[in-house]
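Propose amino acids for all 427 sites.
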């Protein structure tokens, strides 16, 4: 008994050391009066703002708020809420999102929340136009790239392998010799032919672990990096690139369709499918592509250009409807023409149309099934562009917005995404 008592005392003593910091005691909420956040044109959306400490309303709290069409809010005020609450309202006569942003100032710290009410989002249409030679340009570029031998490499990563999955770092040529993609390939140990999934990355420079989980369910998975460097290096390697040699890469070459950084990236995604087809036990039938943010855009581009793709799942897809800001409506990341409204950027505007997720979405075929998901509070990828992109797709598609999310995921959203992919691959 004495030993048990000493053990319990020791356990109690170390528990505080293992406690995790989670969330904030100060919580700001902005709640619409429609549960689905959807309104008809001309309806009035009512928003309830609350600031709470320890779950109870906070008196005499200072806030700033902005309200109006997302990215173009015109109503901006600073107020003191005597009882911690505020009622606001807004409406729209054109399809779009009316957004309310609130920042509460408490004890020298800022706490924020937002809500974007959707007004007839199923009617949203993009501004970008498809160049007449769009398909010809990309078809020629793919044909030229595929004349280059993949010259693949493969290196086993024993510390990442499991009893069910072998994990490798791989590389292969993309548009020309020496221009390479690196990635992590996961292959079921059990011999056989499997469906395949290509995972394409969000913006930035980082290492990758590979999708071992999906592979363990019975699929070949390939997660690629886009920058021509190994994807299993120490974190500092990628931090230095992100802040140095590759800083702002998404803007490189945007005045020439043949020099855009994204040309080799998109072609690399097509070559990744070539690699899957030629060097993995893919069954030649189900093949999916998925990613979020920049990866959502790359999912659209890959599906639009490659008929081998049978399913695609873009999550809060960036790089969609670049020119929307030219008409004063929310545009997709990286918001190329938002700040100067495109003045003096005629060449960049013309180039952007060859690298707009909307135009790739227009190429998606009835044989390809899509799943779209995004947040209504996202201030990186506005839901205006996400809905407009979804609306142009003519093939079979599903939409699953998670209204409260900003540029991140909820666990339920992640689970739904993974389950949808498994179902499409017949797993």
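Proposal:
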């Amino acid at each position: 008994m004495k030993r048990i008592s000493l053990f319990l005392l020791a356990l109690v003593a170390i528990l505080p050391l293992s406690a995790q910091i989670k969330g904030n005691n100060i919580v700001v909420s902005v709640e619409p009066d429609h549960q689905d956040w959807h309104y008809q044109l001309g309806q009035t959306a009512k928003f309830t703002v609350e600031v709470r400490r320890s779950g109870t309303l906070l008196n005499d709290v200072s806030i700033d708020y902005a309200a109006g069409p997302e990215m173009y809010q015109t109503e901006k005020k600073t107020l003191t809420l005597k009882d911690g609450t505020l009622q606001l309202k807004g409406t729209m006569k054109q399809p779009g999102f009316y957004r309310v942003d609130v920042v509460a100032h408490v004890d020298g710290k800022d706490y924020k929340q937002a809500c974007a009410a959707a007004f007839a989002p199923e009617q949203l249409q993009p501004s970008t136009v498809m160049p007449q030679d769009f398909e010809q340009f990309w078809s020629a570029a793919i044909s030229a790239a595929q004349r280059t031998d993949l010259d693949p490499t493969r290196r086993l990563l024993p510390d990442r392998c499991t009893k069910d999955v072998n994990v490798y770092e791989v590389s292969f040529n993309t548009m020309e010799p020496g221009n390479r993609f690196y990635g992590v390939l996961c292959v079921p140990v059990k011999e056989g032919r499997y469906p395949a999934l290509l995972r394409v990355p969000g913006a930035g420079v980082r290492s990758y672990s590979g999708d071992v989980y999906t592979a363990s369910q019975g699929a070949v998975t390939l997660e690629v990096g886009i920058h021509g460097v190994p994807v299993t290096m120490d974190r500092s390697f990628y931090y230095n690139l992100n802040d140095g040699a590759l800083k702002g890469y998404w803007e490189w070459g945007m005045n020439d369709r043949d020099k855009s950084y994204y040309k080799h990236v998109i072609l690399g995604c097509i070559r990744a499918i070539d690699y899957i087809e030629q060097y993995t036990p893919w069954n030649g039938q189900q093949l999916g592509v998925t990613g979020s943010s920049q990866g959502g855009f790359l999912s659209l581009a890959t599906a639009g250009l490659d008929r081998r793709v049978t399913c695609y799942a873009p999550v809060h897809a960036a790089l969609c409807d670049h020119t929307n800001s030219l008409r004063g409506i929310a545009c997709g990341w990286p918001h190329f023409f938002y700040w100067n409204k495109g003045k003096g950027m005629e060449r960049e505007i013309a180039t952007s149309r060859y690298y707009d997720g909307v135009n790739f979405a227009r190429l998606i075929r009835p044989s390809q099934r899509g799943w779209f998901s995004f947040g209504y509070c996202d201030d990186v990828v506005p839901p205006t562009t996400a809905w407009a992109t979804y609306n142009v797709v003519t093939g079979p598609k599903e939409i699953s917005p998670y209204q409260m999310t900003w540029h991140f995921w909820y666990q339920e959203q992640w689970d739904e995404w993974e389950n949808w992919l498994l179902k499409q691959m017949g797993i």
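The CA atoms of residues 35 and 403 lie 10 Å apart. The chain has a mean pLDDT of 94.
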